[in-house]
Amino acid sequence: MMRSLLLVLWCLGLTTVSAQVLPTDTVPAIVNYTTKDGITQFSSELRPLRQIAGAPAPFYTYFWEFGDGGFSFEKNPFHIYKSTDPVMVRLFATNLYDDGKRPPTKPKPIKPGASKPMLLLASNSKEPTLFKMGGNIEMKSNCMPKPGDDMMVVFGYRNKATNAQQNISGTVAILYNDREFANNNFVLQESRAYNGEKKTDLKSMLNVAYLPGAKKPIYYASINNELPATNQADANILLKDKAKDFKNHESWRFENLKQNEERFLFMHFKTTPEMLKDTNAVVRISAVFIPDNPLIETEFFNMELQIVASHDPNKMVLKKSRMNYRLTGKNRELSYKIRFQNTGKGPAKKVDVAVNISEVFDPTTLKITGTKPEVVNCDSAYTNQSCIKTIMGKDSVHFVFSNIYLPGLDQKGVNDADSTMGFVAYTIKFKEKPKKLPIKSGAAIVFDKNEPIYTNRAVGRFKMGLSPALILGYGFPFKTDNKNYLNNKNMVIGASLAPYSPYKIYWQVELYLNSFKESSFLVESDTKRRDTIINQKPQFIVKKDYTRTEKITTINAVPLQVRYNLNTFIGVGAGTLVSLDLYQKATDVLDYTFSPNAAGVAEPNLQVIANEAKKNFADARVSFFTDVQLGLVRVGPSIGFRYLYDPKTNNNRMATYVTWKF
Predict the structure, then answer these.
(1) Which residues of 124-160 are buried (b: 16+ CB within 10 A; e: fewer)?
(2) 363: confidence class by pLDDT, cuts 50, 70, 90
(3) What is d(CA 325, CA 202) in angstroms, rounded to the nearest whole number?
(4) For residue 609, what are the domain limits?
(5) Is the peptide bond before 373 cis (omega within 30 degrees of 0)?
(6) Which of residues 213 and 531 earns the better pLDDT score?
(7) What is the pLDDT of residue 174?
(8) Number of domains into which the chain is organized
(9) Of 137, 179, 163, which is closest to residue 303 (Cα–Cα)?
């Protein structure tokens, strides 16, 4: 009977705890509001926060969606509605340093009331602005993503004054779920638009071809307001490249965006349980603004989001374990310290600390700089005096404490843990300047005749350091398409950057000075006679020449190269050489020849710029290469021989260069 009563009481107690604690995590945020003189003030009621032990005081952050395209991140914001029509208000509250779940969001229907606020209050309003980067688009999230949780993103776009366009139309889009991650990070549960935006398909835009930013021809006699097919290009080369980095996208069509007008889209993301749980990982969401008017640039906005557990008393430590290799020479002194603790039930009278010594060190330079217990050297000690003896081996050293009394941690009557601890500290120098490789040491500690206790490995590493170099080369390709810009024999000046004096496989990058190429050629010559009107005067065209001038700025770089120095004098490498057209400008000129008029007076020829198009990052060509260097390949001068192969044209060539690494 008593057991049954206790069971009932236990269940009632559990139910009470559940009623008091667990259900509060499911109580949605309560939205309160008042409207006066056309201004609506908001406040909220949220469940009490629960302090996490040892953490700072908990608090909430807020994201309000006002139901008409407005928003706020304030705790108690106000909003001026332009209409008295009912709206749905949402509050997304995020709990920080709290051990519960985020309060659920429940839409609150409200009717704002008067739509004409008092002028004084309206002039003092401080509704938030999203645009702090100066562009046409911007995004902000209410929190960092947490696996299995919700996240809100507000996406703003505008027609800024510098666009110099009264009204613009176009497309806005978001790209999410990076392809570099195997699992999707987000699911777009819902998006809300308040300014007539319509869902559209971004894929169709990726396949459009036109000249970005091209001006319409000022004369249409032969081009017929169309660009030659040979001169068409992808509408958004950069957009296509961006889209390849993401698995998902959403896009909206907008119309008649007035100058200085700001509009906002709201996106409710669910972060997937499979999201990377590494708190050092960063995921991205990108936004794009694509105006119909080619004179207004396509813009991108990237938002990076970061995704939101023994003590060993026997330890070996190397002070200043990260060293600058340039400043490391034969006289560099390293400081080591080996700590130990007797965790036994009785005192230790002898402690043998054995340390392996790397071959890069000179054992004769070893000096003991401190001990605990503090003892003298055994060579100068009298009989039975506490002392330390240094015994050198081929690749090790033994520090032997003799005739000491080191209490045990579990020893009866020992209450001071520090009295059970000891250490030996020493310095040692290099034989000569070492190779740029990690220096590893470890220790084994024997208390009396017990089994050895092994410490961690103390590792000395050299900072990577950077080694810049100058390069003077001959035979590097700037253009390998066998057309207008073929240049098989080029003198180039460049620079490289690599780790300083590496002894293992390493990466190297190279960059060469720009080349500038210009070419003009006749596209078409038309001698068909035709009538036209120039400056309100009838003219007779007897000849029309269509000429194109192209200017290209090219940069050559080696973004990917792996190298290995076989020894001090020979190094080998392989990589890719990229020739990138940074800037390309194409100008189409129409040259008209007129016949004499009725009075026998010939009009001068007329040249008209029919079209002018500019492209950035217009083309890239990749060559693969292997090479060998002879000389002081780690630091100093050397000569290199490089074999290059272009798979696009099947061209191959030899190039040579001299370089000096610093």
Answers:
(1) eeeeeebeeeebbbbbbbbbebeeebbbbbbbbbbbb
(2) very high
(3) 52
(4) 466-661
(5) yes
(6) 531
(7) 93
(8) 4
(9) 137
